[in-house]
Request: fold
Amino acid sequence: MKIAVCQINTTVGDFDGNVGKISNNLKKAREAGCDLALFPELTLTGYPPRDLLDRFSFYEKAQRALDQVAKEAKGIVAVMGTILENKESGNPLYNAAVAVQDGKILYTYKKVLLPNYDVFDEARYFAPAPHPEPPFSHKGLKIAVTICEDIWNVEGVFTHRLYAKDPVEELAKAKPDLILNLSASPFHHAKLSVRQTLLKDVTRKAHAPILYCNLVGGNDELIFDGCSMSMDGSGNLFQLGKSFEEDFFVYDTENPSLKPAQSLESETAKIYQALVVGTKDYVHKCSFEKVLIGLSGGIDSALVACLAAEALGSENVMGVTMPSPFSSKGSVDDSKSLARALGIEFKEIPITPLYETGLKTLYPAFKNLPKDTAEENIQARLRGLLLMALSNKFNRLVLSTGNKSELAVGYCTLYGDMCGGLAVISDVPKTLVYQLARYANRKEEMIPEATFTKPPSAELRPNQTDQDSLPPYETLDAILRLYIEENQPPSKIEKAGFDAKLVQEILKKINQNEYKRRQMAPGLKVTTKAFGMGRRVPIAQKFNEE
Reply:
């Protein structure tokens, strides 16, 4: 039997568009002589639909879409993800997989394990199935179906198991000939190697090959990398789908000849491409075409401009430099050079007149008080004002340029440089920003060399540098990784070789600035723990971790 693995990019709530992609892939599968076509998790609805699941009309449209695909699956079985009604107690819906052909539903499978950690909220919406459905038969084969998390509880893969049940162990008792997994597994760095290890253990436990079909594309903060796979019963990788783009490949159960898997790119390349796809899909799925970026001459805005130009085309990107009395000539010149190299539209709008007017207007209120960050931040907020005015006038989405290191400790201005519709690099530590920027220059110099070598600075006062307020970024990023991504307590961070006083200062800044991050634009997730939907820390709290 030939099976098509259809790695597609769905949009939440776009039932017509999602059905169209399914139909196109069914046509390709029939032309390739396939008997079955496999699609990702929640194919019809898009993933994650979140509170749209509370609307009955959403469920109704999903049912109509299911009926439509069933009719179009002529002479071929389509196994796809959708939502089904739960008529018993508990949440009203199931996260399900349905096998359809010739207008009929042949088989349904309801997800057993519902993730409820990090970015996942499935226990909020879905009822868990009490046990996995037995395999169904097709063309003489017993085919077991699983949905994403159902294979993520194999004993031995993780040190701490989240669930008492193991659907793979239960399905293995039925001795299936093949396992299908419909997945919506978000990307983060090094995720592919984790999945490969997991799938190897699944195949060895079930003594059966597995076809793993993963979602691709961006939906809000999440980026899905695809990388669908086929493995034999001994855990040998046969096929590997493309990264960050739609793909289609065929697995032949009777002649599963080993085919060359994609050569794996560097992690830097993967993160760069993830940000490109995340930016492209967020902009387009929010019905925008063009974007706007404030160019400071620094490395962060330069990287965001490169990502945007690759994601959307240079003709759809505008860069704006807004020099103040403290902006260096080099910063303005570097912004111009970057815009010229990328071929993006460029504007220079000085803010000095506005800044001077602002100081004059505030003088009676500020009289006899020393200058501090209040005056400095006027500049950042004036830039935000101008960017949003240009956004309104030209219908361009503003991309904010703050990195994870700055956002973590509050080295950013609320309603200033934080304003925008998408925080492209909000999950990218500063040290990684430099690596990604070098990657952006891999073919030719887009970002001027001076941007890499000059000390990072907000340029809000004379001779200012980031290191006036922050430790070296190598130190800061290492502490942030241990605290935010690895959830280590201060004592263990100090034992890793960091000064106790510095650790306490950084952790205090992280906690004090939660109110800022709660108001930032949605950010693209590329690490194991990002600010946003997967990290829910109270703003008003007095917990002191020592």
Q: What stands out?
A: Residues 271-518 form a domain with the Rossmann fold fold (CATH 3.40.50.620). The chain has a mean pLDDT of 94.
